[in-house]
């Protein structure tokens, strides 16, 4: 006989933290495969950039709220880029802005700002759109404080800036 899993409580978030992405966002694993953010857990290995070696390397997830109660917020922003890729964000999140060579909250960025992808390509932000719709949101952190979400290099609160021109993309 199988044990029944306890249902997670759904919590409506009044003030979501920065660094919250929607659950369908795809995180790049250390083996190059993609996994939904809402399936990532502490101990998983994902890809990130080591600023000391300038290499894309595996790093461990050290924080994940995907096993906690489900957090729901009443709105999100959808950002669309020149390669057709998009990402949905609750509150805000740091992305690597190649024009400024810093991790910057995307809400403060302008259309035409350029962002780094995991293959080394650079794409422009072409549209920001607000949706007044409920969405589940999640947050993770890694040993390098950065990782790839929907192919974009994103950072957490403790991320350090580096020069993207020096990155070796052969993980």
Automatic annotation (TrEMBL):
Name assigned to this protein: Hint domain-containing protein
Domain of life according to the entry: Bacteria
Lineage: Bacteria, Bacillati, Bacillota, Clostridia, Candidatus Caccopulliclostridium
Biological processes per GO annotation: intein-mediated protein splicing
